[in-house]
Amino acid sequence: MFNKVQRDLLKKHVGPFLFCFFVLMFLLLMQFLMLHVDKLVGKGLPFFVVVELILSNLAYMVVLAAPMATLVSTLIAFGKFSEWNELTAVRAAGVNPIKLVMPVLAISAIVFVSTAYFSNYILPEANHKARSLFIDIRMAKPGFDLEENTFYEGIEGYTFLVRQLDADSDTLRDLTIFQEPVQDRYRAYIRAETGQLVSDDEQTLTLYLNNGSIMRHIPGERRGNETVEITEFNRYRLSFDLSDLAFSRTNPDSRSRTGRTMSGEAMLAVVDSIQQEVHREFNNFTERTNQQEAIPYAVDRTSGMYRRATQTRTDSIPAFESSYEALNLIDHPLNQISTLNLASNSLSRYRADVESFRSNIDWRILRIAEFWVEIHKKVSIPFACMLFVLIGAPIGMLTRNGNIGVAALISAVILTIYFIAIIQGEKLADRGVISPFMGMWGINIVYLIIGSFLMLHVCTAFRITNLFQSND
């Protein structure tokens, strides 16, 4: 299928691609752990839950690492090919360099299709599972960890304030506890000179208090009647149920999905339903505004003047001269005032309807844009696998250097520009400033044009400067 030179060039890609892919996966994993380590520490999470959370988040790292590794490996492979004068020999043999790029481009197309499939079907499920796990972890409260002069609300229904902690003897000094009211207890403030924590098992915690007082607020039969009861004690015991501090799993299918946890087909179905809602809103608004309130005026056939249908007075009070021609057709000032009030009320109702209609439509249009952004993203980022071959191959030939440091430096510049454009394009498209297509594909189009010019520069005698030279 491929000749010897093409197979040799493909072999030069395999090692750098695998090396860069796993290095990038490691770096992305370290970044993930640094960002979320505070959410995992102190939760008492099972080891396998942490492993599952990490594995489910590896999915989005694969989609990012594949195009990045493709760019670095392409720069290294073609840089070495040119550095070792193999490109010069191929050109001397009359072989166009485009024939060397085509096999790599074909393999990158396979990677693109595989990554796009992964991004559309596997990544949403992994994101949904990771999102569900994050919610479960967030709901798992931290362990009973008191700090000096800091309010602690880790146990539901209680707030603790400790002025001094004796770590050696587990003694709490100058302790205040705020007890919230529930069915079987009243609102109370508990003060104690000292206290000791004793944990009989993982589900129960006992706090022994010494030399203190309890101030209970006992509600009366009538609202506003409250009795305050103060009790002194030498020793008092409080028991807390810690079962709600333990981590518990919920079924991910019971949680709602967002754009990043749905496949493209599912998002298209949601977009279609939202568009139908937009049409219904428009039809309802049209029906409401078309139902205009009839003005109770009739035309006098003899004079051609508008008169109020219920008006029976025939006094000779002159009508006001108005800048509105319609009001000048009405022959009575009371009728003119009534008409103005009626028109003002109608305009107020119409303005409220317009504002409500516009806010509903704008909200739905932005939701549609957000879904379209996610749909385009599932293809645009994997497409960079082919795009980076088109850019990396001619740059590697022109640099004539297959050093990984040079390739990493060039890749850093290209990838930084690429992902900044993707992130900013997504934000602008979500806000409706630009279309979702341009937000996700704009940088791809720019890089495609640049890559095409670079390929023409390497494979033909075409030069960009020729476009600016005169034919004279």
Describe this structure in words.
By secondary structure, the protein is of the alpha+beta class. Among the domains are: 4-140 and 371-462, no CATH class; 158-245, no CATH class. It has nine helices and seven strands. Strands 1-2-3-4-5 form a five-stranded antiparallel beta sheet, with no helix packed on it. The relative contact order is 0.11. Residues 293-317 have low confidence and may be disordered.
The helix tally amounts to 9
Q: Could you say which structural class the secondary elements and strand pairing correspond to?
A: alpha+beta
Encode the helix/strand succession as letters: HHHHEEEEEHEEHHHH
* Poorly predicted segments: 293-317
Separation, N- and C-terminal Cα atoms:
47 Å
Roughly how much helix do the residues carry, as a percent range? 55-70%
Summarize this, please?
Helices cover 58% and strands 14% of the residues. By secondary structure, it is an alpha+beta fold. Helix 2 packs antiparallel against helix 4, helix 2 packs across helix 8 and helix 7 packs antiparallel against helix 8.
